[in-house]
């Protein structure tokens, strides 16, 4: 993920998930502008089109208004243009996933296609099966991390340089909750400063790493209150959980513990929900750790080095030593600022988001060859087969897309 130096964007008030419909209607009528520009999604999609634009509210916000640059706006509102298939029901879970597709990619993946301002789901056969273009750039832009909820029905989304978080209803393709104020950075009164990572925990709370405020937050979407905070704004040093040094990753583990990545000195810490530090080690051979994940068995840690050339390391936290590494200095297999690496279930191969190469790849664990790729290296685009600064990914183990698309011709 980008380094903790300045970058900008605006705000809208967070709405609790239990906000009454009449309140929502009043807000829509009085505070938000409808945008016809955001109404056109891919065929078969239904996306929200209301956009927050309360200038008066933003001017009263206790944060700092930031300038939106062309880089931050990216490609604008775009979609692949494909006709999307009907969404199959949820029949799997993380503990009992739907049938695997096997190698090279066992499950479809949802990609946060950052500079296309969209979420897109790609099956192992590279069909696009689901897509959410930005409903409106005024409040949804630069989605950079995405993860499914435990029931597979919602998506947690973070937007670093839009300074906000979202929850998306997968089946309705709508944004149902926002925390933070687009284009406004701050540390008080519901404001964020470069939030990275987004997870809905099993209890429904939202986990994120608020990088430039040097804190990790667990937020209750029902009340918009911070339930847990580790670290303090302005106290950016490694002393978990009281202080954190530019945390850019917070990943839940199966037992509820959380892996926290700190940019400074590449610290990775395992912390319980109660704030007890189980261990804290420096990731070996990594300059800029990005979003550490546990391996499938939960015993080791896999982390991407957000550098050029980048690398991926699996290490044993008990010894602090690497047990596997992927690194190529140059050539087709080299990485340019990879933000996420995950060990794949069933195959043990490694899924990598190669951000600035505009692609997502799978690397064979044994041969270290690239065996699957979506996106064209170094070529930006939004049509089928192309990405524009992909920055986040999660596995869809919840829906049997293989069976659902078996009778449909590949387009």
From TrEMBL:
Signal sequence region: 1-39
Protein name (database record): Pyrrolo-quinoline quinone repeat domain-containing protein
Organism annotation: Sphaerotilus microaerophilus
Alphabetical list of InterPro entries matching this protein: 6-blade_b-propeller_TolB-like, PQQ_b-propeller_rpt, PQQ_rpt_dom
Keywords, sorted A to Z: Signal
SMART domains: PQQ
Coiled-coil region list: none
Occurrences of domain Pyrrolo-quinoline quinone repeat (ranges): 228-378
Gene3D superfamilies listed in its UniProt record: TolB, C-terminal domain
């Amino acid at each position: 993920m980008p380094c903790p130096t300045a970058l900008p964007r605006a705000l809208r008030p967070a709405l609790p998930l239990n906000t009454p419909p009449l309140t929502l209607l009043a807000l829509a009528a009085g505070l938000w502008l409808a945008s016809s520009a955001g109404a056109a999604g891919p065929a078969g999609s239904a996306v929200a089109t209301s956009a927050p634009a309360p200038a008066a509210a933003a001017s009263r916000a206790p944060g700092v208004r930031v300038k939106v640059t062309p880089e931050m706006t990216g490609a604008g509102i775009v979609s692949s243009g494909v006709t999307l298939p009907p969404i199959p029901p949820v029949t799997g879970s993380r503990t009992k996933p739907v049938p695997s597709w096997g190698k090279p990619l066992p499950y479809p993946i949802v990609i946060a296609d950052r500079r296309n301002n969209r979420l897109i789901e790609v099956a192992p056969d590279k069909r696009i099966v689901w897509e959410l273009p930005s409903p409106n750039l005024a409040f949804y832009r630069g989605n950079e991390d995405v993860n499914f909820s435990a029931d597979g029905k919602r998506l947690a989304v973070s937007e670093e340089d839009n300074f906000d978080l979202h929850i998306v209803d997968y089946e309705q393709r709508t944004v149902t909750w926002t925390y933070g104020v687009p284009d406004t950075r701050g540390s008080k009164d519901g404001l964020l400063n470069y939030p990275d990572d987004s997870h809905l925990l099993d209890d429904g709370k939202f986990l994120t790493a608020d990088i430039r405020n040097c804190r990790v937050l667990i937020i209750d979407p029902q009340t918009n209150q911070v339930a847990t905070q580790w670290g303090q704004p302005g106290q950016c040093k490694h002393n978990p959980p009281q202080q954190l040094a530019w945390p850019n990753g917070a990943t839940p583990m199966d037992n509820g513990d959380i892996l926290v990545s700190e940019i400074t000195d590449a610290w990775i810490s395992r912390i319980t929900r109660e704030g007890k530090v189980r261990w804290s080690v420096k990731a070996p051979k990594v300059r800029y750790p990005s979003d550490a994940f546990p391996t499938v068995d939960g015993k080791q840690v896999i982390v991407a080095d957000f550098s050029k050339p980048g690398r991926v390391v699996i290490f044993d936290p008990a010894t602090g030593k690497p047990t596997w590494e992927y690194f190529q200095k140059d050539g087709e297999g080299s990485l340019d600022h990879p933000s996420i690496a995950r060990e794949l279930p069933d195959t043990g191969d490694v899924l990598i988001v190669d951000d600035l190469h505009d692609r997502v790849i799978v690397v064979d664990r044994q041969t270290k060859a690239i065996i699957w790729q979506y996106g064209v290296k170094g070529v930006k685009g939004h049509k089928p087969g192309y990405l524009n600064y992909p920055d986040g990914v999660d596995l869809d183990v919840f829906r049997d897309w293989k069976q659902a698309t078996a009778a449909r011709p590949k387009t």
